[in-house]
Specification:
Blueprint (H helix, E strand, L loop, with lengths): L11 E2 L7 H14 L6 H13 L9 E2 L2 E3 L7 E11 L9 E9 L4 H15 L2 H8 L4 H9 L2
Parallel strand pairs: 1-4, 2-5, 3-5
Antiparallel strand pairs: 4-5
Helix pairs in contact: 1-2
Length: 149
């Protein structure tokens, strides 16, 4: 299964209401809980925070890809958040992040996890795509931008 197959309106939130890194992580995990994709919010949040403690997943050009492997999920899970105002995420370029892709996988699914990270990296190379995503006003618009549907 590719990451694109996971993209549905119920796993996208526009705009995020959080204004700091920890709350962004909480909000992204809650998106998956609300969508019925995870049950153990604390276990998932803990795994994401542990991974983030090893080094920020804030990349460059307004993109952050918090991710973790945890037995609290079965298969690959994705949540997408858009923060037009930008949120400090300790990014490599020291600029605020606007686009957040939370990626979760079970410990035994390294292949799909890496493939999804690669898909996100490829998407993030398009500056016009990132600008369009950052200015999206609805979850439906994000889904359309990402899937073309």
């Amino acid at each position: 299964m590719t990451m694109m197959n996971l993209i549905k309106e119920e796993i996208v939130k526009v705009p995020l209401v959080s204004d700091d890194k920890l709350n962004v992580l909480r909000e992204l995990v809650q998106i998956l809980k609300d969508a019925g994709q995870i049950e153990d919010v604390n276990g998932v949040l803990s795994a994401v925070q542990e991974r983030e403690a090893k080094g920020s997943t804030g990349l460059e050009d307004g993109i952050a890809v918090p991710h973790a492997k945890t037995p609290a999920v079965g298969g690959l899970k994705l949540a997408i958040g858009v923060a037009p105002q930008g949120i400090d995420f300790d990014s490599l370029d020291h600029k605020p992040a606007n686009l957040f892709f939370l990626l979760l996988a079970s410990p035994d699914s390294a292949g799909p996890h890496v493939a999804a990270l690669a898909e996100i990296a490829k998407l993030s190379q398009s500056k016009s795509f990132c600008r369009a995503m950052a200015h999206a006003e609805t979850a439906a618009e994000v889904v359309e931008l990402m899937t073309g549907e």
